[in-house]
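Problem 12. The chain below contains 377 residues. Write out its predicted structure in token notation.
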Amino acid sequence: MRNPVSGNSGKPPLFATIRMNAKNQCPMLTSDQLCGIQAELGEQMLSHACHTYPRIVNSIRGMRETALTLSCPEGARLVLLTPDLRTLNPPDSAIPDPGESAAPLPPEFWEIRTTVLGLIRNRAYPLWERLFLLNILCLRLDSIARGDLKESAAEFLAGFQDSVAGGTLRTAIQSLPSDPTAQVDIVLRLAGLMLHKSNVRPRFVECVQAFTTGIGNGPDATLQSLTATYNAAHDRYFRPFFDRHPYILENYLVNTILRCQFPFGKEGVLAGAMPSISREFALLTAQFTLMKGLLIGVAGSHREQFGATHVIHTVQAAAKHFEHHPEFLSSAYNLLVESRMDGARGMAILLRNTPTGQPSERATHIVPSLEVQAPHA
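Solution.
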């Protein structure tokens, strides 16, 4: 918990922690799901996390960056529906943190960050191609950090930016594999990861029910039938909406990049750390694949009526269910590894939505169950 009296550093001293209950829920909530601390003692006695929610403040070697958690409906609305959402570059994107020592940032930190954010906004490429280019960047930076390549990170970044601008990598990217059935299989498994480990809230139940309806999931469904309905939902309802509003998914990715301190990760920005940048990309892909997949199903459920309200509802409910669970990211990464989807080929399959016209061998696998019920009031 946060002591209301701060120390000289400007940061609230830590003097206690609150253990979540068996449902990964705060034990201080009342029967009406309201904060008992605020009700009895006032806002000034809230913990630091509750006091700052939905803002996420990350400290990076003496600098502070702020993102929003999309589990807050208003936070999701502000982030996703702002067409000209600003992503400031240094020195304006981060402000000094008086409580942290100004240790040197990782080499080329700002150049990497600028390249990543610029790539997400580069509409000369379809979004899935931008993300795969980001995968190439992450793999190469890992190779440079290990000493496998002689060129420096600065030299690589300059050449990479020239290649992106010139489109020289486009032909290779367009030849990457597409396997929509395998993508559906991973979306279903990601969506089911926390069903028995987390408190399932009514809004998430509504989200799952719309998703399963939209892809035709049911007792007699097969992955082959789900893939056909999933592809139709993508082509007829999901893609037209996001073609008209391309900034929504871009904003989701930018906020996730800042929230997760991509591509270094929260531990990777620490002094002396050796981050696995390709692992951080796999985590980003897992989160994006899950959210995109849920939105495709929800679009298929609402069809021509699919709009911004459904997007906010889906993203908010999913963010609250998954992002607040401490095991989600590690479980998602383990799922990708176990499914052999953590490599370049797997990343392409998860990112690309171009039907091959042929069902994969996975079509005979058992469809994971996503049956959920709202908790009793």
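Discussion. The chain has a mean pLDDT of 84. Students who got a different answer should revisit the alignment rule from Section 12.3.
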